[in-house]
Amino acid sequence: MGSSERLHVRWNEYEANIKAEFSVFRQNADFFDVTLAVGSNRLRAHKIILSAFSPLLCS
């Protein structure tokens, strides 16, 4: 642990890759952790995504 060695990680084409990975998350129901209900409609979602885009849903 006393080493001062550094590691630099670079992810080429980050934007394209992150979009593709989030698409996979949307298709995989195992990762949904919240359900939004409006009338008789239900939408399963990810809390972290909702929180990132809504201060109301962040809490």
From TrEMBL:
Question: The BTB domain covers which part of the protein?
Answer: 32-59
UniProt keywords (A-Z) are: Developmental protein, Differentiation, Neurogenesis, Nucleus
Q: Look up the domain of life of the source.
A: Eukaryota
Q: Example GO biological process term?
A: R3/R4 cell fate commitment
- Keyword set includes Nucleus: yes
Q: Name one GO cellular component term.
A: nucleus
Under Pfam families, the record lists: BTB
Keyword Nucleus assigned: yes
The protein's role, per its UniProt record: Putative transcription factor required for axon growth and guidance in the central and peripheral nervous systems. Repels CNS axons away from the midline by promoting the expression of the midline repellent sli and its receptor robo.
Q: What is this protein called?
A: LOC100869307
- Native organism: Caligus rogercresseyi
